TrEMBL record:
Residues 1-12 have a biased composition (Basic and acidic residues). It comes from the Bacteria. The chain crosses the membrane at residues 47-68. Residues 1-42 are annotated as: Disordered. This is SAF domain-containing protein. It comes from Sinosporangium siamense. Keywords: Membrane, Transmembrane, Transmembrane helix.
Length: 238
């Protein structure tokens, strides 16, 4: 008996239904529904573009003006030595500098003669550019009720590096030959140092002129003559 053998169907060969479905799917992807919707053209805004151009031009113009302005120089007064509150501005403490014109009201060097007729409202440190707010026409430190007393002090009686414009306490320090019951006492709580001089090699000033009230100036002078005066600097009182 003869038997006929049929070739086995390859499971990998797609059936007609599957091929049809695949075709349908392929056709669906390539159909009109898969096409992109048209994008409307962008709306042009000439007003915004013009504003952007104006901002750019304005920024460039401002930068140019700043560069040009930075080249403008003006003459000003710079203080080269400390001037204490109430002290006069002398011509020696003023020097000319050229600075950029920033709009700040610095006193011109051409006004130095007028400045020399004024006094410091506050203590002015070296390197300060002078403004009108730092000057005053009358000094309360050198007005009525004040006296300038000269002190000849030894090392140990005066702080090292004391300068004009500093504030000090004037203290009575009893000597060894005085009354043992006497105690040190403050004669002037905050006296202004007007000037110093005779600096020795160690930087101690031998002669110091201080401004005190006239009510205590006799006692200060008396104790200074007997070497019973000492000065204590007040760094925070300027």
């Amino acid at each position: 008996m003869r038997t006929s053998e049929r070739p086995a169907r390859d499971s990998r060969t797609p059936s007609a239904g599957a091929a049809g479905q695949a075709k349908g799917v392929s056709g669906g992807l390539s159909g009109p529904s898969s096409r992109k919707l048209p994008v409307p053209p962008r709306e042009r805004k000439p007003a915004l573009a013009a504003l952007a151009v104006l901002l750019i031009l304005g920024g460039a113009l401002a930068t140019t003006l700043l560069v040009l302005r930075s080249g403008d120089r003006v003459s000003a007064i710079r203080i080269n030595t400390q001037v204490g509150a109430g002290q006069p501005f002398s011509l020696e403490v003023m020097e000319e500098v050229q600075i950029a014109d920033t709009g700040i009201g610095y006193v011109s060097f051409a006004e130095r003669q007028k400045v020399a007729e004024t006094f410091a409202r506050v203590t002015v440190l070296p390197g300060t550019l002078l403004t009108e707010q730092m000057t005053v026409s009358e000094s309360a430190e050198l007005g009525p009720g004040k006296a300038i007393v000269g002190l000849a002090l030894k090392p140990g009686q005066v702080p090292t590096g004391l300068r004009a414009g500093d504030r000090v306490q004037v203290i009575f320090v009893p000597g060894r030959g005085g009354d043992a019951a006497e105690q040190p006492k403050v004669l002037a709580q905050s006296a202004l140092v007007q000037s110093t001089g005779n600096e020795d090699r160690e930087g101690n000033s031998g002669v110091v002129n201080v401004i005190v009230d006239t009510s205590v100036s006799p006692a200060v002078s008396q104790y200074a003559s007997s070497g019973e005066i000492a000065l204590a600097e007040l760094p925070g009182a300027r």
